[in-house]
Design goal:
The complex is a heterotetramer, with 2 copies of chain A (about 140 residues) and 2 copies of chain B (about 425 residues). Chain A has about 140 residues and is of the alpha+beta class. Chain A has 4 helices and 3 strands, in the order αβββααα. Chain A has a 3-stranded antiparallel beta sheet. In chain A, β2 and β3 form a beta hairpin. In chain A, α1 crosses α2. Chain A starts with a helix and ends with a helix. Chain B has about 425 residues and is α/β, with parallel strands linked by helices. Chain B has 2 domains: about 140 residues, Alpha-Beta Complex (Aspartate Aminotransferase, domain 1), CATH 3.90.1150; about 250 residues, Type I PLP-dependent aspartate aminotransferase-like (Major domain) (Aspartate Aminotransferase, domain 2, 3-Layer(aba) Sandwich). Chain B is about 40% helix and about 15% strand. The N terminus of chain B is likely disordered. Classes of the chains: A alpha+beta (about 140), B alpha/beta (about 425). Chains in contact: A-B, A-C, B-C, B-D, C-D. At the B-C interface, α3, α4, α5, α6 and β9 of B face α3, α4, α5, α6 and β9 of C. The complex binds pyridoxal-5'-phosphate (PLP) (2 copies). One pyridoxal-5'-phosphate sits at the interface of chains B and C.
């Protein structure tokens, strides 16, 4: 997948993100803030026996952050909590070295297009950090 | 100063034409650098001065009596004199720091902290950079003094008429001359005059203005004025603090170390005279030489021409932005029309995404909070786009920016 | 590292021959620079690195997402990693400062001040530079802690056997690795091991040793280690502080300003993670690039070759000085034979006058108290002559010094 | 007078300085310290009706400092206190600009040879500062 294609996929996520929506009191919530831009995200999660049953997020954030949240959503519902860390490590591997895309979960791969922009990495990580925090509550 | 050039009318003097030759490493065909408020590109003369320092003046400053050491010391003091002269300050009242940030912290920790009394007030403006906010915030938390904010109106003008500001409980007003987000110019002369009449101390953060607005501390009669070299076409890692002579006597060093003491025994330390006692550690000679070269560079252009040039170019950028239906412009500090710094948002497109599209098209603008949390919290935005201009920018930089904004709008809305 | 060179035996590797080509601006035919302990001459690669920074990386570090900004940020972090690796430290535990002096003050004011309790003791050695004395002196005066001096014997060895040093009331031992007056090497590994076992914190002032003695903070396991770039062939205006990970968590920033906060509102400030929260203000990128280039330069020579070279050359200088009937040599710190720094006096001739005659003959040696009042008060001398060596010095520098001493003796006695 | 000649004159002062000697309790004393080298000088003065009747000094100091003290001694005995400042200004003028030697008191002129070495200026000034202080006591 070249850069253009990746950007198109991220844009599609941005335009109709999975999981964007209201977080009611059934969710436990985690928050993320990006110090560079003040972007904020709230991620809500519902769990049953360590399995993620739903994720919702609300954000004042850029397209990368929204797209990453949407991908996270698609990847993790119905997965075990432990998978958050597994995929998050894949994401970080990808940001560090876009060549690792080949061994990465397909849904994550478009995010390789920002690996050359360390200042944007936090945008992609923000929702993941918020989700981890939410799961601790 | 080139006296022939100086005699020509300022408006016809082409700052860009004269300056651009000096920036032989800045490729303005391929690249539109609109982030000079963060740090400026460097003219060849500044790079040369730094290099000459490393080639021909590698010796300790103020510590050696062999010829190279004497040469280093006198080059350093000549540079101090040059930078002091640039803001019309007596040489002995200018100290070198590593940055504007350190200069302000020197005032906070080396002076205000031991003098201010609980309940006294420090007034800052809504548009301060964190460098002129966080030190005072911390000072107030540790001393029981009170931090107060001078608000501004919708046109970017400070609300200076409130009586409370001028109350005898006010210890200090610390404000930026030119905002790093809203550009423009705050009325520092009037403010300093009024403050002095009331016995209120003043600190001017000139980080943004020093590159283009004339500064004259003798006329201003402020107590402190701080700036960095790297934002005025000079090198990194060096800044300066002007200190009023009376405040200097009340000040103690921020850092303790070599070069600041006259005599020491296990009980008593006798400090050297100012400015030496405020510059602990080996002086940054090459930095000072580059700093002086930057002052030469700027004063090689006729007085006021730079501010007129970048201000007028900023006005043209602003006009072009205003013509876009979906661009919201932030006001200009002080309410004027001319500003070399402009902030804006594009409706429906996150500033990060605007900046990204611009970057993809060779236009370097900024996104983020610009270290101005006080202002952005107030505006209730997390991020803004910002463009800022240097003498190497020109009208031809406008179109690529506008195109980028249009493209970002297409893509993201 | 040049692997071929590395394979050769160290003793036959000619450090001077390999290094001198890099100092194209140092004219060692006309001039004998024997003041590298104050600041070193700069190799071309360091000057180039600084210049490249100003030519090709003029953009804010950690603040911008356009390509030049990303390049600046990653160049800065790569430089941090390089300098950290040079002392075998994890990258995130090395902060850039403006100097060794600032680094030590960061420890004093940002860490010790809020943790130390009255009556706790800080031990320094008799041979500390003012940079590692005055900050602690001041700290003790403001906190009620007690400053204690580790004395040395006539051979320059620290008297480390006193029980009082290792008492539980000792908070910290702060000492220099290599003395700027007595040269040599203090036994920092043993000292750090013993201190750690007793729960005593350690700070190593590596300003003098970093240019020639291998440093490995992982093995040392000290709490802090401070040094400056300009004494290790690097640029001015930048230094570094290594901080143990536990101490880092206890530390607060010395300077407040841009780039150190995650979020700010009028009540609360949330700091960013280390190392960023300790580097308020615009980072000195060109300085960092030059710093990294200096590390490359030194590690381009086989390990231990530099220390062997300058140490052996120092031994030869010492021998030649000892042969003069009227020269009194100060001991070498740690009691060894090899030292790249030597101090001495010439009987009946004031150190100023010795240095003057040397200067008139092209030999740059130092005179004065070398910012070491603690030691000079103890030695009951006001001034000493000092010579100190770099990789560009050689045997041919000995004769001109000896001649100068003879001449000074003739003139002044 | 060229540099060599100046140095020779200073050296002659250094080798047999005027006024070097013990300062007893009849003298009021001022002290000077040079921060660069720790050099110390004590200058004792006796006065009668604002006229300097004697000066003595003791020093741990370099040849320049001793020579300057000796010159000071030769210049100022039997002069009014106010002349200290007058000659001291001449000395400072000379250190700043060796070309001003021509308008300077002859005894001071050899000190022009250190004008190019600012780090040594303090050596020449030290005894003068100490004398001023002594006269205030
Ligand atoms: C032993 C020692 N420590 C600290 C310093 C201070 O270094 P800097 O002046 O670069 O801050 C010096 C430099 O003179 C030194 O020799
Ligand atoms: C208004 C203002 N003040 C202070 C500073 C701090 O300058 P420096 O980072 O060079 O210390 C800046 C730079 O960002 C600024 O824009």
């Amino acid at each position: 997948m070249n850069k253009k294609e990746s950007q198109a996929v991220l844009l599609a996520h941005y335009k109709s993100p999975t999981g964007l929506g209201e977080i009611d009191e059934n969710y436990s919530v985690g928050k993320g803030i990006n110090p560079l831009c003040g972007d904020e995200i709230s991620v809500g999660v519902t769990l049953e026996n360590d399995v993620i049953t739903d994720i919702k997020f609300q954000a004042r954030a850029c397209s990368i952050c929204i797209a990453s949240s949407s991908i996270m959503n698609q990847l993790l519902i119905n997965e075990k909590i432990s998978q958050i860390e597994y995929y998050y490590q894949q994401l970080n591997g990808l940001l560090k070295d876009s060549c690792s895309a080949i061994q990465t979960e397909e849904l994550l791969r478009p995010l390789a297009s920002i690996s050359a922009m360390p200042s944007r990495h936090k945008c992609a990580q923000l929702s993941w950090e918020a989700l981890s925090e939410a799961c601790k509550h | 100063m080139n006296s022939l050039a100086a005699k020509k009318s300022i408006s016809t003097y082409d700052v860009y034409q004269h300056a651009i030759e000096q920036f032989s490493h800045y490729d303005n065909e391929r690249y539109h650098y609109l982030d000079s408020a963060a740090t400026s590109q460097k003219p060849d003369c500044v790079i040369d001065a730094v290099t000459q320092g490393y080639r021909h003046f590698c010796a300790p400053v103020h510590r050696a009596s062999y010829p190279l050491g004497e040469a280093a010391s006198s080059a350093y003091e000549t540079a101090r004199a040059r930078v002091a002269q640039f803001i019309n300050a007596p040489t002995s009242q200018l100290i070198f720091t590593k940055s504007c940030t350190e200069a302000i912290n020197q005032v906070t920790l080396g002076w205000a902290k031991s003098i201010i009394k609980p309940q006294q007030k420090i007034w800052l403006t809504r548009m301060e950079h964190n460098a002129n906010y966080l030190p005072w915030h911390q000072l107030c938390q540790t001393t029981g003094a009170e931090l107060k904010i001078i608000e501004m109106d919708e046109d970017g003008c400070l609300l200076l008429e409130q009586e409370e500001i001028w109350h005898e409980s006010t210890f200090l007003i610390a404000l930026t001359h030119c905002s790093n987000v809203l550009g423009g110019e705050n009325p520092i002369q009037e403010l300093c005059d009024k403050a002095r009449a009331q016995g209120i101390y003043t600190l001017i953060d000139a980080a943004q203005s020093v590159s283009h607005l004339p500064l004259d501390v003798d006329k201003l009669a402020c107590d402190f004025l701080a700036f960095s070299a790297h934002k005025m076409y000079g090198p990194e890692g060096i800044g300066a603090l002007y200190i009023d002579v009376k405040r200097m006597a009340e000040m103690s060093p921020l850092l303790m170390g070599g070069g600041i003491v006259e005599s020491v025994d296990e009980q008593h330390i006798v400090l050297r005279e100012a400015p030496y006692c405020f510059e602990a550690g080996s002086p940054n000679l090459s930095g000072a030489l580059g700093f002086a070269a930057a002052a030469d560079f700027l004063q090689g252009l006729p007085a006021a021409a730079v501010s007129q040039y970048v201000g007028e170019l900023g006005r043209q950028f602003r006009q072009a932005l205003a013509q876009q239906g979906n661009v919201t412009l932030m006001p200009i500090a002080g309410g004027g029309e001319h500003s070399s710094v402009l902030s804006f948002t594009v409706d429906g497109v996150h500033p990060h995404d605007v900046a990204q599209v611009a970057a993809d098209n060779g236009v370097a603008i900024r996104t983020g909070n610009h270290c101005s949390h006080l202002l952005l919290n107030h505006l209730k935005v997390g991020a803004l786009n910002r463009l800022s201009l240097g003498v190497y920018n020109r009208r031809e930089d406008i179109e690529p920016l506008i195109k980028s904004i249009k493209l970002a709008t297409e893509i993201f809305t």
